[in-house]
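Q: Focus on the chain.
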Amino acid sequence: MRVNTLIWFVLLVLTGCGGRQMRGIDSSDTLVVKSSPVEKQATGMDMLYRLYKVYGISGDLASDPYCPPFLKGVYYANGMLVFQVEGDTVAIRQTLEQKTGSSAFHLELTGDSLFSQKDLIVLQRKVRQRLALPENTDVNANVVGYGVGAHHLSINLIVNTSESQQAFRKKIIDSPALQFSGGRMDEPCTKEGISGTLGVHLKTTSPSFSVQSETVTFILSNESGTNIHYGADYSLAYEREGQWYHLPINPNVISIGYVLCPGKTEKLTAHLYPDVHPNNPGRYRYFKEITIGDNREKILLMAEFRLED
């Protein structure tokens, strides 16, 4: 699932804790600023509310057409509101103080190597367009998310190696604003699980699968006499020269809970992503965390399998 992250401040501005509508504020009122980060951020939300009201902004500040041209983005640093701006900072500060009724903010002059959120949104659109091209299917398969931060465009990869970064920069876009994250192929795995306990068992549907397999499947059985609970997440490991390493997978999962009743079985599926990291023949491990009983005791289950030519 691709996650495209934009910063939607309007949701923060229009609602307070618990979804309560915030009080009306007149732009001529002077805000009282407290010292704690939480109090500073609450003041920042009031300031943004005033700014949105004055300019008629209804969406994300960095991309809304009614946003004044000198404003390039906004974020919080230690609770303090930071405006990314371009132009005469003296005049801009005077304007913002008048519109927000406060001086409790920082200005950040963007340009050169300091990217604003508006710059990053433009880059994000180009990335989205180029990833969708048929000739970039191989790179797109490795991308699980990209989003705008305060100063970088975050690119989340399944496999985050220098080679995969180079492929992205060559085929999609090359910019110093890119910030990559994701799994590597050399992260040691020290996890140890068990195949069964207390009447709960995990096993593969086959002792081996093809190296070209996109998925492998497992059977989770419950003969414990009580319910077991688990989520959609799992992890994989592979053996290389006698050492176990994490096999990178898509970290984005649906946050949902499952219940397996006593006497029931469930088929589980793990994705191997052979188009992202060609899987070599050898030993692999599948890890699945469950909880059992009313006290929700955590148990890490493990099933081992092989990939073969």
